[in-house]
Known about the structure:
The protein is an alpha/beta fold. 53% of the residues lie in helices and 12% in strands. It has a 5-stranded parallel beta sheet with strand order 3-2-1-4-5. The longest helix is centred in the middle third of the chain and has 16 residues, at 70-85. The chain starts with a strand and ends in a 6-residue tail after the last strand.
Amino acid sequence: xxxxxxxxxxxxxxxxxxxxxxxxxxxxxxxxxxxxxxxxxxxxxxxxxxxxxxxxxxxxxxxxxxxxxxxxxxxxxxxxxxxxxxxxxxxxxxxxxxxxxxxxxxxxxxxxxxxxxxxxxxxxxxxxxxx
Length: 131
């Protein structure tokens, strides 16, 4: 399995070749609720049409959604503390995404280089505009 971060969801939606290759290699790609929330926030905040919003929600529906677990919450706490000790502050959703990746031992596909600060996350980084 492959945990997909928000920017990578968009790459998959736009049929980015490299993102699709990784999704197939680690099939199935999964998301966590923080990614779903961030992705939908982007749609609402971007004031997309109702039809575009519906397409976005239908696309998200093709992913398995990881359930929140107590173990992921523990990982979240450790990730935040460890990063803070290094003077690094990630967004709260990114802390949760990292926690889920670590808890499930899934590789993470992301367009966000901030995950490079977390040594145990197996990151597949794709620049946001890549194809």
